[in-house]
RNA polymerase sigma factor (Nonomuraea insulae), 451 residues
Amino acid sequence: MTGQTPDAGASVEAIFREERGRLLAALVRRFGDLDLAEEVASEAIEAALVHWPVSGVPPKPGAWLMTTARRRAVDRLRRDRAYAARLAVLQVEADRAGPAPAADADGELPDERLQLFFTCAHPALPAEDRVALTLRCLAGLTTPEVARAFLLPTATMAKRIVRAKKKIREARIPFRVPGADELPSRLPGVLQVIYSIFTEGYAASSGPDLQRLELAEEAVRLARILRRLLPGEREVAGLLGLMLLVHARRAARIGPDGELVLLDDQDRRRWDPAMIEEGQGLVVVALTGGPPGLYGVQAAISALHDEAADVATTDWPQIVALYDVLLVLAPSPVIALNRAVAVAMRDGPEAGLALLDSLAGEPRLRGYHPYATARADLLQRLGRLGEAADAYREALACAGTEPERAHLRRRLRACEAPPVPDGLDRDGTATSADGPDGGWTAPVPDGPDGA
């Protein structure tokens, strides 16, 4: 923008990032139309980019943006009577939720993002549409940015977002927070959307990179917003704690050349101690005052990993016990897989392999490379190298990112290499006597699915 200094541009960008979700939520609440709200919110930001570098950032930027956007919306409705008539019908639905709150005494924009969370994550929308809409509306990513996050063409992602908005409009999905009787059934959907964003960011499903940290950090930011809006919900605390405890390891998960570094081999001095401490505090909140929840238990597992000095001294019996709790809360072959790895760490590779083989018929694990990788490693540790090589090839066929594939190729080569003298690993290094099974240390999964 002509005349705009770099500092002014950065200031506007930071304010936009903080205020956009609140602005959009307030506009949707007032006008009952997500498309209109997005358009006038963008126009208000464009106006800010023109005026603020000259006149300065106003004391209440959110209120300034809201006033500007509201005027643009009113002007547009006056020009388009048919559009206004359609919105009048939609407004009836919005009015049922009660009058829109006004700015507070300090002129601050009311925070109605909680309504927007539940609108974007409504169960009437397909799961992939909920994630896309949440990133677009609450995270403030552009449609091309959302598309890049999931390695999809922009046109495909645009259709997905348009489809979601159309569904909201045509199904008359209300812009409101569910009542106390609905909240327990609706909140898990919101949490799952945020966790899906984090999972894709922390452990990318495909592409050249192992992580997409900007996406993981956006999920953490969304969870922080939700925690502020629902401070009494223990599972919100559990989700934020889980993500912080996993995200604290981000710098140690990748080597100098972008290669995958397993939990066993990570330099724990590179873990983020402040993030771990915050996550540990949230685990206490999540597990206090009632039955444990899905995210609280997963956060407790991650806390045990983060508290240990190394893999060998990790409290594997407690981790197995927590996976037992998870299997009761949410029976899943993926949770059973991760429990099997923990059992292998506690009881040895034969015990873990028996559990993995019992899961062989699970449809969800077909094409799920962590399952084939875990089997391959246990077979390799047991000296069954031909079977291990076959399992590594199976994992290679379905691994999504290049760092994962490179790691699997290295493991496969180790299985195919000539025998080495006793007392040495296949890479020629001495085995450790401190592992749970005479020097065996499995490649412990690291990340949301294996926390």
Remarks:
- Residues 112-177 form a domain with the Arc Repressor Mutant, subunit A fold (CATH 1.10.10.10).
